[in-house]
Design goal:
InterPro entries: Kinase-like_dom_sf (IPR011009), Prot_kinase_dom (IPR000719). It is a single chain. By secondary structure, the chain is of the alpha+beta class. The protein has two domains: about 230 residues, no CATH class; about 325 residues, Transferase(Phosphotransferase) domain 1 (Transferase(Phosphotransferase), domain 1, Orthogonal Bundle). The strands form five sheets. The protein has a five-stranded antiparallel beta sheet with strand order 1-2-3-5-4, with helices on one face. The chain is globular and about 80 Å long. The N terminus is likely disordered.
Length: about 575
């Protein structure tokens, strides 16, 4: 027994998560006094490994950049690429140094996820060093001075440098887009060490903001952290924001308002302005307006801090609060968002699916990735969406994609993860189609959790992958009043009567039908990896699902474990798809 425990204590923590079954079998034979020190040692090694790999990555990156700087001034294209690399690495280094500073407070899941990513970055930087060695080795191996100074050799050397810098820019951008969702999960940590580190880092970076042309990545983290967990006492030396969330309805007088088809939102163009706003009302079930007001204000604060390009969410402009004329009490709230700069009024994904114009597989995958990122960040903001459907995905035209750029909206049913949800549903088949069986019908079975959003994501990704609308409107021009019918692509007859039971939720047959569709139709259209992502989402609460399993297993206090599993099982895989 002692030898097996010593083996565990010295085991590589890199494979800690994947060796859990073996570890549990060993620990089952141990006494509690033997188990606790062993587990503590393994987690400690994991945390030390995170800090160690960060140090290694920083040294490698600085070596690469220093070497490439020797080419500065020799070629204009090299200069441009070097500026890009330095800008990318400056932000990454800030993030990595901060991660190292708080690494001792990471829980096992989050630490392991960061370590896996850091090892990938380390490998990319080692490849960059190897490429540099190839391009510079000729300076010492050429046999004659003539060869060293020849025009042919100079052009080859600069060509290799440009190629290496191009590859490095691409790899750093791809790695950071994958790293950011995991890094932002740190926001959910309850540790006061995080707040202290953010305050210290913010103070130290104040003097450097004038040097950097763009804000530090810690700025958005600090703002989001304060929006999620406001400081109990003012921070010494730090100015406290006094910006009001409330908008004056008078400011929208004379504005041109246009309903967005198949959506509860509308686009607004104010008089004398070309900027576009998007507004949507938030539902408040009877007796819940006070709690809804708190949640909407919290959501607005967090959405004021998001980077739309990174988060896939529109930035909040403010709130319009409407009173009941009779009681003078608060009746409902509208959330107003800023649309992308110079944007035209958007369409919903539902509208695009119904039009069924041909689109490329790469455009579909790009939209799927944007949606996955959006949901990841909603959960990072400590909310569940509860209404993920193509009707709530806005698409703005974009010259870079036939499908445009998408943003998730439809927060009219959202709630904080800490607010006990009601168990009242509805029988509308076209909404129940996107709900997990536990949440279908008039009286649902379970309170809403993050995995229910993940299931809804799976239905949307299936529909997107097939590029056929599951919901059909006989007369598209009458979308607000026309009764929807099941689309032919759904291959299933559905009506409200299927969900009118008052004592249970759904029976699971719809879910099994969707899983079957994904397994049989998607592989030939978008490949096995996309299919696997969809099936993983649809089965996220099945006991046999290795990525998520039962909801009880991942009801962690901070929501970090579900976030990590979502990133690893869904976001990671969909980011690997190249069309």
């Amino acid at each position: 027994m002692a030898s097996r425990l010593r083996w565990l204590g010295g085991a590589s923590c890199y494979s800690l998560r994947y060796d859990k079954l073996f570890i549990l079998s060993v620990l089952a034979e141990c006494s509690p006094s033997e188990i606790i020190p062993t587990i503590g040692l393994m987690v400690a090694e994991l945390l030390l490994a995170v800090a160690g790999v960060i140090d290694g990555c920083i040294k490698l990156a600085n070596k690469v950049i220093t070497t490439y700087q020797s080419y500065r001034g020799a070629d204009e294209l090299i200069n441009e690429r070097l500026v890009l690399v330095q800008a990318l690495w400056t932000k990454l280094e800030i993030q990595l140094n901060f991660l190292k500073k708080i690494s001792s407070q990471l829980d096992e899941e989050l630490a392991q996820s960061h370590l896996d990513l850091l090892e990938i970055l380390n490998g990319k930087l080692l490849q960059a060093v190897a490429r540099l060695n190839v391009s510079t080795s000729s300076t010492s191996n050429d046999s004659t001075l003539k060869q060293k100074t020849s025009e042919v050799w100079r052009k080859w050397r600069f060509s290799m440098a440009k190629k290496g810098l191009d590859e490095l820019v691409t790899e750093l951008e791809a790695w950071r887009s994958r790293f950011d969702p995991t890094w932002y999960l740190i926001i959910l940590m309850s540790s006061t060490t995080l707040d202290t580190a953010l305050k210290e880092t913010d103070t130290k970076s104040t003097d450097s903001t004038s040097v950097c042309s763009s804000p530090s990545p810690l700025d958005s983290m600090l703002a989001l952290r304060h929006a999620i967990s406001p400081p109990k006492t003012p921070i010494s030396g730090e100015s406290q924001p006094k910006t009001s969330l409330n908008l004056d309805a008078a400011g929208l007088r004379g504005a041109t308002e246009t309903p967005i088809p198949f959506s509860s939102a509308r686009s607004i163009v104010r008089a004398g302005s070309n900027s576009l706003l998007i507004a949507e009302s938030v539902n408040a079930p009877p007796g819940t307006i006070s709690q809804v007001k708190v949640d909407v204000e919290n959501l607005a604060r967090r959405l004021q801090q998001v980077d739309p390009q990174t988060f896939g969410l529109l930035r909040c402009y403010g709130l319009l609060k409407h009173q009941d004329p009779a009681t003078k009490g608060l009746k409902y709230i509208e959330v107003v968002y800023r649309a992308p700069q110079d944007a035209n009024p958007p369409m919903t994904l539902r509208q695009l699916l119904l039009r069924h114009h041909p689109v490329s597989a790469s455009a579909i995958v790009r939209t799927a990735k944007q949606l996955v990122y959006s949901i990841s960040y909603i959960h990072t903001c400590d909310f569940v969406h509860k209404n993920i459907r193509p009707d709530n995905i806005l698409v703005f035209s974009d010259a870079n994609s036939s499908l445009g750029t998408s943003y998730l909206l439809g927060f009219n049913q959202f709630r904080s993860t800490h607010f006990q949800t009601n168990l009242l549903g509805d029988a509308a088949w076209h909404r129940n189609l996107y709900r997990h069986p536990e949440r279908q019908g008039n009286l649902v079975q379970e309170r809403y959790i993050m995995q229910h959003d993940i299931y809804s994501l799976g239905v949307c990704l299936l529909e997107l992958g097939l590029w056929r609308s599951f919901v059909w409107y006989p007369d598209e021009s009458q979308s607000d009043t026309a009764a929807p019918v099941p689309g032919i692509s759904l291959g299933l007859a559905l009506s409200d009567s299927h969900f009118q039971k008052t004592n249970t939720g759904g029976d699971g047959r719809l879910k099994e039908h969707l899983v079957g569709m994904a397994k049989t139709i998607l592989p030939s259209r978008l490949g096995d990896l996309y299919t696997d992502v969809v099936v993983t989402c649809l089965t996220c609460l099945d006991p046999e699902n290795e990525a998520f399993g039962s909801q009880e297993q991942y009801l962690d206090e901070d929501g970090i474990v579900v976030g990590v599993r979502f990133i690893e099982s869904i976001l990671d895989k969909i980011c690997q798809i190249v069309v």
